Fold this protein.
Amino acid sequence: MKFLGKKFEGKVIYTGEIDVLFDSCYGDLPYRSLRFEYENYKKEYFQETAMTSYPNNYDFTRTTETKHMTGQDSKTTTVIYEYPQKYERNVPGKDVPYYPIPNRENRERYEKYKKHAENYENIILIGRLARYLYYNMDQMIKLTLDTFEEKIK
Ligand SMILES: Cc1cc2nc3c(=O)[nH]c(=O)nc-3n(C[C@H](O)[C@H](O)[C@H](O)COP(=O)(O)OP(=O)(O)OC[C@H]3O[C@@H](n4cnc5c(N)ncnc54)[C@H](O)[C@@H]3O)c2cc1C
């Protein structure tokens, strides 16, 4: 691996999309994206919880009222509506890869990238994009601490 034209011997921690790291040499891995819309209401609270899921009946799948978490004292409230969005790399507004899409075909493609990465001993792949797996925050924090103990300390 080279950095500024010279061989780089240090460790590289990579948390982005693994297919992007290797110029999609085995093809693009698909992801799901999201679209967020913000709506302000002239009332103190909109819903009873910080987050409400709508899995079936609407185009949006979640509403989040962050005020429940931040504790702001305000006579109005802002709600974030979350819509499913097809991921398209390099298309502004659609280019954030929020979730991997787990299925056998995508896993097989990911495994090719993982094997390829093994040729570079100093690259540490970590996170949902580099490992092409959904992680909750607590899992991600544990994985990061464990990886630090194992590969960096
Ligand atoms: C909409 C949504 C809601 C969620 N809600 C919850 C929840 O309620 N509870 C929960 O526990 N978890 C939740 N999660 C999951 C949580 O966000 C993840 O577990 C956590 O963010 C994963 O951490 P990460 O480090 O893998 O990825 P990220 O937090 O995405 O960090 C990856 C980092 O890599 C950087 N990066 C990307 N590409 C490159 C590149 N090419 N080069 C350099 N850097 C790059 C990014 O800028 C980013 O800083 C949610 C996720 C989403 C998308």
About this structure: The CA atoms of residues 50 and 69 lie 7 Å apart.
